[in-house]
Amino acid sequence: MRRIISVLMENEPGALSRVIGLFSQRGYNIDTLTVAPTDDLTLSRLTLTTHGSDQVIEQITKNLNKLIDVVKVIDLTVGPHVEREIMLVKVKANDAQRAEINHCVDVFRGQIVDVNTNAYILQVVGSSDKNDAFIEAINYADILELVRSGVSGLARGEKILKV
Amino acid sequence: MELLSGGEIVIRALKDAGVKYLWGYPGGAALHIYDALFQQKDVEHILVRHEQGAVHAADGYSRSTGDVGAVLVTSGPGATNAITGIATAYMDSIPMVVISGQVPRDKIGQDAFQETDMVGISRPIVKHSFLVMDASEIAVVIAKAFYIAKTGRPGPVIVDIPKDVTAPDHRIPYEYPEKIKIRSYHPTTKGHAGQVKRAVKTLLAAKRPVIYSGGGAILGDASAELTELTKLLNFPITNTLMGLGAFPGTDPQFLGMLGMHGTVEANNAMHEADVIFAVGARFDDRVTNTPSKFCPSAKIIHIDVDPTSISKTVAIDIPIVGACSTVLRQMIEEVKASKETPDQDALSQWWSKINEWRERHGIYTQPRHEPSSGNIIKPQDVIRSLYRATKGDAFITSDVGQHQMFAAQYYLFDKPRRWINSGGLGTMGFGLPAAMGVQLAHPDAVVACVTGEGSIQMCIQELSTCLQYGFPIKIISLNNQALGMVRQWQDMQYSGRYSSSLYEDSLPDFVKLAESFGHIGMRVSNFDELDDKMAECFALKDRVVFMDINVDRNEHVYPMLIAPNGSMKDMKLSKTERT
Fold first, then answer.
1. Catalytic amino acids of B?
2. Cis (ω within 30 of 0) for the bond into B564?
């Protein structure tokens, strides 16, 4: 099952490589990964999506907690949460195709963030599912390039991940 | 406040962390630190002959005392040579701090002379690591390294220090932190009270219980509590290879070691148990055999200081995270306070079943191998002879292979921290340098290294260190002129095709070799002289004695679990019999 695991860790050199190393060393999967400093600059927040049996996910969270640089770990998928991923898609866009692309972007509440004689850069923000659906919807167009940020997320309500 | 250079701070911080002995080998990037070492008397340095030896020696020192081992090596090859030792310590959770020199800060990443990314290369085999980028951080980092190494589940910690950070011309105030606090690191010691209650209730209701204790009971100094609880309950107990000595090996409640080369009574008891009580053990593949067939009818209680050990390979019914000694003490109190008592009828039936296995197949009720005679010396008899000569009270280190298993089976350890071997990583070459560490920590104790002609050659250079520092280690080498355990598997699974397990008359004369290092060599080729030579060896108290004992090369280690796909009760008992 797909899981979103959020990790609060020391914003120090080497901390990220320990997390990545743990996954490769123990044969766990990382599907997406995103990391940046938080409002407290001594801390980084890392969000990753992974999949595996309950037993594997339990080992992943326990092993993450065991890393000295890791302050806190939460599996966002166990409760209600918000997840977002930003996706940029460069598509071929000549005059004939533009109307249709514009329509599709509107439906997905995306934006056209760069316009060129022959190409658009489209921006879509949403859950991974939504972004997957957009790729399918825009498939008739000629996709030149595509980049996804990986998932970020927060638990809904009062549940927070803080020191 | 006192002004010290980075190099001086390293040594002073080691002293303030409680280090008396530092094992190491100098080189370019570590020279500032070595110069600081030269100018003081508090920390004594032992010069090994290869960095692997330094790490194993610090490891042996730690295993025999419980203190944190300390190592100093240079960058590049010094650091990479230490890697096998660090991995060995990591797999067996040995507390250790390894300080490695690094190229100067402005050279990092430039493929400088003797540069290697030590933090990167060691990452999967350390508990934690630090790269110190400023002299002002050295003292705090070293204090943190020792704190991390010895608390929670112990392990090796690396402190990598670029050469210019230790430069003598840059002097700064020195202060060793009194207390260490790491916001992201809080090991659990006390067991959850509710879980302790559940565990005790389950134990007291058990009809066929077994206590299965591992290296954690020794590392956590829980031997007294483990023994007290085992006696209180009158339960059978088995130890893992790493756990031998946590419960007295000569006590009738002890079933022997379990697992791959465990006793029939221990493995059968595990398989048929209704409650298994694991203490500081990690359900290693050499214990469980096929995990899906492991202990089919047992409820499992597991105490471990490391939450990741729990339900890693086998699902646990009652987990308790905490330090073994603390949790066992909680359990003893709980047992004493409980109105319930163990089911004596069920227990006595269980014990008669166990005693039946002992009578029928046990290696302690009668010898299960052919007797030695003349020039056929059975390796098992060498360990028995060693046991008699040392009255069962020596520190025994071992290398890896058949000799290790024979030693684990036939030398019955009554005390913890007496059996020093590389269980997890299985590192050949561990025994001799580890023995140096043990001997340094216990100068008046008898220290013997059980080895083979294969393993001993992997760190044989340390014979020179033994002479320099006067470590009177007794080397008991079971020479079967073959890589015995490899050969055993080739006999069993490869129709006797001895692919690269034989030396074809190329072995050195170990007696002369020992003599050339300034030690005493002895050869034993006849069983009739074994006991006398063994006595002679241990009478030479101040000398290293290398006993080259020609043992029967056709001997296999039994019992042996049948793998793959076997359970714990599927064992080979000899070349022809199985359970």
1. 51, 113-114, 163, 485
2. yes
CB < 8 Å to A62, chain B: 307-308
SS3 B330: helix
Q: Quick: pLDDT tens for A102-113.
A: 999 999 999 999
Domains assigned to chain A = 2-78 (3.30.70.260), 82-152 (3.30.70.1150)
CATH of B193-361, one of 1.25.40.10, 3.40.50.2000, 3.40.50.1220, 3.30.70.270: 3.40.50.1220
ipTM surpassing 0.95: no
- Give the CA-trace dihedral at B221, B155, B192, B257, to 10 degrees: -50
Residue of B324, B319, B89, B306 whose CA lies nearest to B217: B324
| Contacts of range A51-60, beta carbons closer than 8 Å, 24 or more positions apart | A51/A1, A51/A2, A51/A3, A52/A1, A52/A3, A52/A28, A54/A1, A55/B311, A55/B315, A56/A28, A57/A1, A57/A3, A57/A5, A58/B311, A59/A26, A59/A28, A59/B308, A59/B311, A59/B312, A60/A5, A60/A23, A60/A28
Domain B379-557 belongs to what topology? Rossmann fold (3.40.50)
Q: Is A53 on the interface with B (CB under 8 A)?
A: no
pLDDT in tens, B104-154: 999 999 999 999 999 999 999 999 999 999 999 999 999 999 999 999 999
The CATH fold assigned to B3-173 is: Rossmann fold (3.40.50)
Query: CB-CB: which of B127, B184, B307 is closest to A10?
Result: B184
- Which residues of chain A does B283 touch, with a Cβ-Cβ cutoff of 8 Å? none
